[in-house]
Amino acid sequence: MTDPAATKHGPGRILIAVYGVFALAATARAGVQIATKFSDAPIAYLLSAVAAVIYCAATFALAKATNVSRKVATTAIAIELVGVLAIGAFSYAVPDDFPDATVWSHFGQGYGFVPVVLPVLGLLWLRRTR
Amino acid sequence: MFAPLTWFLVALSLAAMVYAVVLAARNKRIDWTVLGALGVIEVALVAQLVVGIVQFAGTDRDVSGPFFIGYLIGSLIILPIGAFWALAESSRWGAGVLAVACLVIPILELRLHDLWAV
Description:
A: 130 residues; B: 118 residues; Four Helix Bundle (Hemerythrin (Met), subunit A)
């Protein structure tokens, strides 16, 4: 029987801090985009909002570190990984559909590619603390 | 933008980040030196907010208001939340959290600089 609280201590502390930064950045970015110029690129901005919700869910679930929240975190981070890979690939394949950048465009190039590395580290950390 | 304040913030934040990394590498916990540096950075960020709003109000540059003001306000909450999250961790990883928080400040300042320069 492992301690579920292990998720939020040690290296996990930094992982959650980075998730928190992205939760904040993605939420603020999506909020401004949708409030000021939604009609410019509705699909991209809705995806920004989806990304923001997922980052917030992952941050709080990792920080809560209970048996239930671990499942929430695992689900959120798995969706995040699929999302960044799918949006990253699509944004290269059909750039016209992404006239303005989302946090996941080009595998998170605008954010130093951290968005594509973060879910991998997240899932590895969840497995390590299982 | 008042460039010297921006570069002061970038330099001090990076110095605090390096210090926090050294603490973590030496298996030390957060100390008053790094917390004091965070306090100075936070005061400078408040000054940057005031300078930024005054200059934004008086400029005819094509600066994106929501993003510019958003970055100015957003930069204020990074260090307090980071410190709160770091202080609750009684190991080297608390200092690591502060290093992450300190790295965010120069990124935001450079974005502000770019937004203003456009």
